[in-house]
Amino acid sequence: MEFMDSREWGLFKSNWQHTLTYWSVFFSFGLCVAFLGPTILDLRCQTQSSLQEITWVFFSQQLFLFLGSSIGGLFSKSLKCSLSALAVSTLLISVVFAMIPLCHRVMALAVALAVAGLAMGIIDTIANLQLVKLYQKDSTIFLQALHFFVGLGALVSPLIADPFLSETPCVLANVTTNRSTTMRHIRNTLGGLHTHNVSHYPFHTEGEVVTNISYAFWIMALINLPVPMAVLVLMYKERMIGCDSSARTRLLEKDELAMRVRGSTTSTASASQSNMDYRSLFSCCRYGDLSGQPLGFVGIHVLGGLVLFFSDGIVGAYEGFVYSYAVDEPLSLPHKTAGYLTSVFWAAITVGRLASIPMTYYLKPSRQLTASQVGVVFTLLMLLMLYSSAAFLFVGTIALGLCISGIYPCMLAYTEDMLNYKGCATTVLVTSASMGEMLLQLLVGSVMHSQGSYSFMVCGVISGLLGLCSFLALQFCWRVYRSQSSGDAEKNTMAEKGDVGVKH
Asked: How many CB atoms lie within 10 A of CB 177?
């Protein structure tokens, strides 16, 4: 592999099964990311609920994704615990996909999606944590590949669902009007948590339900089923299934092999970091854990979390509301044309993450992040200034997806490297990203409802600028923390020399 040096390739060869398993687990995560928007109208018919009621399942999934991200670190105390949580979570996703067609009430559907969201959050935290723990200073390139699989899954699930989507009203009442155009329009509009743009459309809740969407969910359940099986195979290979006392020995041998590949100089440092204490967000943020740390240490966690809060929030808000923005004035794009924007955006993110894999080898994470943050702000500013250009909306959507695609994995690796892999950074950052995606969707939807569609890009520019400012503040905080750490190290060295002098 040309984008890896011999050390990274050696590490990958010694840990390939773990790495491929974590990548496949993130494919499961991606399947859940994008299926709800296209299928929401058919699910409304299935549950015979109103449009306002059914769209709150978005919030149910996002809220429990945030909770899952927050507690995911609790399952990373040991490899066996982590893999067990991943196996259960990925299996739950297949079970939820299989059970969704049986949910004929909106409350049952909300509970099912809450379970899926909780599993997604646990997957998000654990897979990121384990890759960082496995590769440490070499983790950037593998995290980029990990997040590529999210985009891949997010592209696959709408493609699976599309042939089974209803083009005419799927609750048959005593009306004969053809509403296939309206169904496509409403489906594309329902990317976010608000229904203000579509609440005036009449949808029947009583009558015969005619929908084939069940087949799409059963297909996705089958496609996802090999993922928990892959996790179980890995657990079996590591002798974690059953009571085999040799499992610990085998893992130690694997760690020693990885350290030999890193080189004798870094082996000792890696050994001292191999037992990183990853915890949940709540235990990471306890006052007792933070009171003894320098201000820079706390600042890096907070500012790193803010960077991902805004960047992942932009992804969620843009995916959710770009269609509503495009069909409104002054663009007034045809419904079918505007419907391609979300797919184009996710395709650009997927391609960007794929391109970031070899790019990571040539560019340091700090330079990648700087270029990405500036690119996001510049693209959003251009979209704001050229708000009446339909052609540039597509060009800008592609550019935004490419620029923002690498921020998440780069920030995880960069922040953990700053803090010398002390354990809480990944948990805080993953949770902040989930929170940003949930809250910024709510905020942007509310602002668009009260101020009009033009405010969509204004919110994007403000979020991008706040993300850039947070990143610049993070750079400054890192310098402060580094100088504090150097000063403490010098004091400890002087104290040790003084103790030696007294003994002599």
From this structure: 8
